[in-house]
Design a protein that fits this description.
207 residues; alpha+beta; 2 domains; four-stranded antiparallel sheet; 6 helices; 17% strand
Amino acid sequence: MPPVARRAYTPAPGNEITLIVETQDGRTVRLPGGDHMSFNVRLDFTSILAKLPQSKIAHLAPKRVSIHIAPLATLLPVPQPSDLDRHSPDELKLVLGPYRKTGTQFFDEGGETGETVSMMTQMINRLPRLARAPETARTGTLQTVLNGADGQASSAGARARFQGIVEGCENMLETTKRMNMRACLTYRHDVMQTETNRAFWKARGGV
């Protein structure tokens, strides 16, 4: 069964998820992500929300915080007392081995779709969670992402696809007051990741 909303996850043993803190005095501090952050399924199984309590790094006087996720990094569900069917060692070996490597082809190296999702994620994380960003701020964020804010160059096809999605969301903002740009992009992100997830499971002989 897919994970329920807010389900807690934790990095698998040996997986490198690193919290990178740039301090006010110019230092760069790298910390184990699993020791400082919590990871929860958002509202659907298509994305994870990483939470960092400010108190965890307040003593470092942070200026900027980012997360580095190493290749093949994997999150596993935190066991709950209500779990009726826990993952066995053999199942975990399968998930962390061949299944994870196959997933790389669909998600980590997802071609044009993967690049588009990556740009959507970058823009989502830069926009207000609840309020509507002014049009100038939305346009500036769009250009920041298109200019390679994460240091990765995207293909022309992915850039055009991403711009088309943002344009569609801009049109939506003109017709309704119930959503903001972040919510619209999150919805489109979920749809694309759901489609990719289905393709992945079909490749593994699932349904």
